[in-house]
Amino acid sequence: MSEKYEPSQVEDNFYKIWEQRGYFEIEGNQAIQEKGKNFAIMMPPPNVTGSLHIGHALTFTLQDVITRYKRMDGYKTLWQPGTDHAGIATQNVVEKQLIAQGTSKEELGREKFLEKVWKWKEYSGGTIVHQMRKLGVTPAWSRERFTMDEGLKEAVKEAFVHLYNEGMIVQNNYMVNWCTHDGALSDIEVEHDEVNGKFYHMNYHFSDGSGFVTVATTRPETYFGDTAVMVHP
């Protein structure tokens, strides 16, 4: 017997037993399930841009605690696990790796670049799942999904078509983040740089010529469109 407690040996052994016996699956608590009691959580899938961080550990722990409680309370439970492709964010990760290797996606060509992306997905996704198992969380692993799986892609297409037919998606001109290399980018894919600006003090003269009130702004171009100034007495 070891002189000190080795958590990895104990945790890995019990986790393996739990999983082999199907405790995490929908029917894992069949002996105590009560009719009509159902509970499900769709795990917010972590991006395959890297590995899990402390924030993931917190949110997964909270979801796991709730799911375990529901299992013990006789609910048929589903905690749906998965990972997310993360779109351009994952593409950027792979592109940076290629640049570090002295090449680029253009030099590789579309097919070979996609092979690199999928290879990264397998590596990063595998790391994420390994981390979740080490945390001891208990999702229904037999139902693990990736957001590029065919079924999920079709579901997304169906949702967009439905929203379009309902008039909830329209094509129009909007302000967007634009990159000359990648095109339109979402807000979460934009890195912001702080720059020093100027603070302007502008005098707004009274209509009777008796004086003026000074207004400070970082947007002096709006001055020409101003028609009134409200002042707290």
Quote the beta fraction: 5-15%
- Point out poorly predicted stretches: none
Give the neighbour order of strands across the main sheet: 1-2
Calculate the mean pLDDT score and round it: 93
Per CATH, the architecture of the domain at 7-147 is 3-Layer(aba) Sandwich
Terminal Cα span = 80 Å
Order of helices and strands: HEHEEHHHEHEEEE
Helix content: 25-40%
Task: Classify the fold: give the CATH topology of the domain at 7-147.
Answer: Rossmann fold
Cα shape? elongated
Give an overview in words.
With 233 residues, the protein is α/β, with parallel strands linked by helices. It has a domain at 7-147: HUPs (Rossmann fold), CATH 3.40.50.620. Helix content is 39%, strand content 14%. The chain is built from six helices and eight strands. Strands 1-2 form a two-stranded parallel sheet.
Short description:
The protein is 39% helix and 14% strand. With 233 residues, it is of the alpha/beta class. The longest helix has 26 residues, at 110-135.
Describe the structure using short key phrases:
elongated, Rossmann fold, 14% strand, single chain, alpha/beta, two-stranded parallel ribbon, 233 residues, two-stranded parallel sheet
